[in-house]
Design brief:
Elements: H1 10-38, H2 42-53, E1 57-59, H3 60-67, H4 71-83, E2 87-91, E3 99-103, H5 105-125, H6 132-150
Antiparallel strand pairs: 1-3, 2-3
Helix pairs in contact: 1-5, 2-5, 3-4
GO biological process, one term: response to stress
Protein name: MarR family transcriptional regulator
Pfam families: MarR_2
Length: 154
């Protein structure tokens, strides 16, 4: 027989609810700002940010893993971005089956123009609301949850 559900206590539920509400509201506002300021979707921004942080080229599967996206979602996103000239796909020299995603000059320009404005919004909506001690605590909590998740089955 299955064990009964381990329901959250009211305090646990309140913590979970406020975390989810904050995260959804923050990501929603930042996504709308990226779209309005740079005419890129939040997904475009994420792909270009991670790609350029990694030197401008990555295997498609590694990029998908980094973003926690399914390979099909990554492929569709890269296809849309390729049509707009933000990225290009290249064959992997060491693996004929793999594909590299490469930031184009237009993609590099787009992220270089969008990033400073995005950081201003992150600072205004998130960083400025917290003390350095609170930011340190949040980073510690986030890293602890991430490490815990790595040990759990997907």
């Amino acid at each position: 027989m299955d064990a009964p559900p381990r329901w959250l206590t009211p305090e646990q539920q309140a913590a979970w609810d406020s975390f989810i509400r904050m995260q959804e509201k923050l990501i929603g506002r930042l996504s709308r700002r990226v779209q309005a300021d740079s005419h890129m979707s939040a997904a475009d921004y994420l792909v270009l940010a991670k790609l350029t942080e990694a030197g401008g080229r990555m295997r498609l599967t590694d990029l998908a893993k980094l973003l926690e996206w399914e390979k099909s979602r990554m492929s569709h996103q890269v296809g849309r971005m390729t049509k707009r000239g933000l990225v290009a796909k290249e064959e992997c020299a060491d693996d004929g089956r793999g594909a590299l995603v490469v930031a184009t000059p237009a993609g590099r320009t787009a992220i270089e123009e969008a990033a400073p404005v995005h950081v201003d919004h992150v600072r205004r909506l998130f960083v400025d609301a917290l003390t350095q001690e609170e930011l340190d605590t949040l980073a510690s909590i986030s890293n602890r949850v991430l490490a815990h998740m790595e040990k759990q089955p997907d």
